[in-house]
Amino acid sequence: MTDYPTSFDRDDLLKCARGELFGPGNAQLPEPPMLMMDRITDISADGGPHEKGHVVAEFDIKPDAWFFDCHFPGNPIMPGCLGLDGLWQLTGFNLGWRGWQGRGYALGVGEVKLTGMVRPDRKKLTYFVDFTKAIQTRRLTMGVADGRVEADGEVIYQVKDMKVALSEA
């Protein structure tokens, strides 16, 4: 295990987006506006209900966020796919945080439930990623996790069996 901290602020996440946190060619977050979190409040390789690792992160909702103007004009809603992407981003971040090498790639998700919406009056999203598997072999580096997104404490998205891999290719 590496000696990375267990929480990260926005500046740390931007370093990761620039490839400065885990090193060139390794797990990297996207830059804004696709960076879907403002801070990671807790991360582990052995926490969560399955004791395989977890991540908790937050995203401050700004009423003038770029996606509200285009989705949908006159009825602003954050696209659900952005919440899913945030969960994938955090899954890949955890693999890099473990010190595992390679660039992250979303491989899929088994099940997605959208039960609420993010409108401009919401204040904060909280992401929860709970690993069910974390695999590193000579041929495969992959995380499988369940996740949920809460908006101001209300569960609005739930996913099962998200898969993210790291590849040096």
From TrEMBL:
<dbReference type="GO" id="GO:0016853">
    <property type="term" value="F:isomerase activity"/>
</dbReference>
<keyword id="KW-0456">Lyase</keyword>
<keyword id="KW-0443">Lipid metabolism</keyword>
<protein>
    <recommendedName>
        <fullName>3-hydroxyacyl-[acyl-carrier-protein] dehydratase FabA</fullName>
        <ecNumber>4.2.1.59</ecNumber>
    </recommendedName>
</protein>
<keyword id="KW-0275">Fatty acid biosynthesis</keyword>
<keyword id="KW-0276">Fatty acid metabolism</keyword>
<keyword id="KW-0444">Lipid biosynthesis</keyword>
<keyword id="KW-0963">Cytoplasm</keyword>
<dbReference type="InterPro" id="IPR029069">
    <property type="entry name" value="HotDog_dom_sf"/>
</dbReference>
<dbReference type="GO" id="GO:0005737">
    <property type="term" value="C:cytoplasm"/>
</dbReference>
<dbReference type="Pfam" id="PF07977">
    <property type="entry name" value="FabA"/>
</dbReference>
<comment type="similarity">
    <text>Belongs to the thioester dehydratase family. FabA subfamily.</text>
</comment>
<dbReference type="GO" id="GO:0019171">
    <property type="term" value="F:(3R)-hydroxyacyl-[acyl-carrier-protein] dehydratase activity"/>
</dbReference>
<dbReference type="InterPro" id="IPR013114">
    <property type="entry name" value="FabA_FabZ"/>
</dbReference>
<comment type="pathway">
    <text>Lipid metabolism; fatty acid biosynthesis.</text>
</comment>
<dbReference type="GO" id="GO:0006633">
    <property type="term" value="P:fatty acid biosynthetic process"/>
</dbReference>
<keyword id="KW-0413">Isomerase</keyword>
<comment type="subunit">
    <text>Homodimer.</text>
</comment>
<dbReference type="InterPro" id="IPR010083">
    <property type="entry name" value="FabA"/>
</dbReference>
